[in-house]
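Morning run. Coffee first, then this:
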Amino acid sequence: MAALAGGIAWRLRRSAPASPELATPRLALAELANHGGLRGKMLYFTPTAADYLQAHWKELGLRCDPVVSPEQLAREFSPSIQNPKAWRVLDRKWRFDALLLSGDPATFRQLLDHLRQSPDWTLTWLDPTSLVFERTPARVWTAAELERSMAAFKLHSPREQEEARIQTAHRLIAIGEVASAKALLEEVVKANPDSAPAWTELAGCHATEAKWDRALEAANRAEACDRHYLPGVVAKANILYASKKFNEALELTRRLVVELPEDGQLLSLHARVTHSAHAYKEEIEVLNKVIELSEAKAMPTGSWRVFLGQAYAADAQNEAALKQFEEALKDPEISDGERAFARKAVERLRGRQPIL
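And here it is:
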């Protein structure tokens, strides 16, 4: 199932605005400029980078069709961040030279995974705000270059140096560089044992390795440091869900969707948790919201409709269930297994039989 773009980005409560190196893709663009220049290049970018690029497009010299503004490009690119098939259509149209993936990797997870598996693209840079891919052949980024990106913060405040390490670790986890992420985070908690963001990221490291007890321990440490730090609550909910502690996870996702009722990532998580906890009425409510948001973003809804059909059937709403399965079958994006299940469900519902 496609996750909705959005989600709680890594964030730290701060009394002053972050420096440009922590708040914009400034470092990543400087690195791209060092790789042969930006002038005349066609850049794909995620929505988080749009404002900075809009302000600096001319000075960067990036290629753009004369009748298409960076703002228009941002709107065109946005739906593809969780849809590799849509992104490939864009690449055929624009022939990108590089990709600037700024913001929380959760918002572009599917595209990131696609690029990492593609022989046509190479990861060439990683810093606290962004990942950069360039068309192969290109110089490959390695974890040995972390020292160079961290050096950009040597004159920053201790708080920003800590933040730079945590944000970098967040992106390292997303590309599977867990050992490097742990090393940075252990530096942080050694200096500041009360860092909820660092403990949250350490929970993510352990979760990536399916070390659920250690992951939960780190998530609990984050909660003890700051129970209002929502990314920590999200991490704990995900860990409880993965550990099949569905009712405990449900308590947390209920809280999260009340606090952030329009957040696509949280609604998606709450939908999965309600399904596993057999909270069918809640599942129906949240799945309808997920489908509404997905349609607004021109994202596929078939997989979600299969789940919604099951929820309606479990709640004895067979006509509503039948409608959802029939709608799901119209979606070419659903998997072969989902299609077979939906077809069988339609057959059984029309014969007034249980779907399972």
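Strands lie at 43-45, 98-102, 121-126, 130-135. Good start to the day.
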